[in-house]
Design goal:
With about 250 residues, the chain is an alpha/beta fold. The protein is built from seven helices and eleven strands. The protein has helices at about 1-10, 20-25, 60-70, 85-90, 110-125, 145-160, 230-240; strands at about 35-40, 55, 60, 75-80, 130-135, 160-165, 175, 180, 190-195, 200, 215-220. The strands form three sheets. Strands 1, 4, 5, 6, 9, 10 and 11 form a seven-stranded mixed β-sheet that branches. The longest helix has 14 residues, at about 110-125. The radius of gyration is 19 Å and the shape is globular. The N and C termini lie far apart (about 40 Å).
């Protein structure tokens, strides 16, 4: 992995591959900045341009932007994309677009890990003292501001926070007698699995320090589990919004 990272940095950036901590020590910088990234690559295999599809009058990524922009303790919100068109749309909602990631990091099977690492090295090149990254995927439009703020606060206090799905939780859409999608969920008693829908909150992990405490927040609301990848997912999200079935806390 270290050689992969070194090769990656040599291909795209000016600085040698160093941990954030060693880099900050060399530069005599204090790592202090918190960045929210909204990863949104242009191509998608099932729904074309799903990240900017019109969902009840706004592009899909705008629902994530509206929450991210209101978070306390965040220094900037950026879009991590390969598309100038997506970047332009994001900027209309107050999101920064400091770079376009290479097309080879935005393919169907491209890892979000490498897209995030590209962000890290971009800020290293810019001498920006990055402390923490919050990743909010635009395909999960349903987040409550207070719940996300709690996770940000825990990240800043303890170095990391996670969202989790209880092991046998379900999101089961079915149709009522009028053909409208209906959401059905369950809140099981035991076990948990990582869940990306609310976000990934990484701080001290970036500089490989041990974390004594972290916050785990379970997702029990089936609406928050909607992750738009298919037409059916999109129709569920549309139904929720049209019928005012979710409180964003805004």
């Amino acid at each position: 992995m270290l050689k992969q990272k070194a090769d990656f940095v040599a291909r795209y950036f000016h600085n040698q591959e160093l941990s954030l901590l060693k880099w900050a020590q060399q530069k005599e910088l204090e790592l202090s900045k918190v960045v929210v990234q909204i990863p949104a690559r242009m191509n998608s295999s099932r729904l074309k341009n799903k990240n900017v599809m019109d969902l009840c009058g706004k592009p899909l990524l705008a629902y994530t932007a509206q929450i991210a922009k209101r978070l306390r303790g965040v220094d900037q919100v950026i879009i991590n994309t390969d598309s100038a068109h997506y970047a332009s749309i994001a900027e209309q909602y107050g999101v920064n677009a400091p770079f376009l990631r290479p097309a080879e990091l935005a393919k169907d099977h491209s890892s979000i890990t490498w897209a995030t690492y590209y962000l890290v090295r971009h800020f290293v090149d810019a001498d920006y003292p990055l402390k923490a990254i919050i990743t909010l995927m635009p395909t999960s439009p349903f987040r409550n501001l207070n719940a996300i703020q709690h996770l940000v606060d825990q990240l800043l206090a303890n170095g990391a926070a996670y969202t989790a799905l209880r092991a046998d939780a379900m999101l089961s859409p079915y149709a009522d007698e009028n053909g409208h999608p209906v959401l059905q969920g369950c809140a099981p008693r035991t076990g948990c699995l990582p869940a990306k829908t609310l976000g990934n909150f990484s701080g001290e992990l970036l500089i490989k320090k041990n974390i004594e405490k972290c916050c785990i927040q379970y997702i029990d609301d089936p609406v928050e589990l909607i992750d738009i990848d298919t037409k059916q997912d999109f129709e569920m999200a549309k139904y929720v919004l049209e019928n005012d079935l979710y409180d964003f806390g805004l």
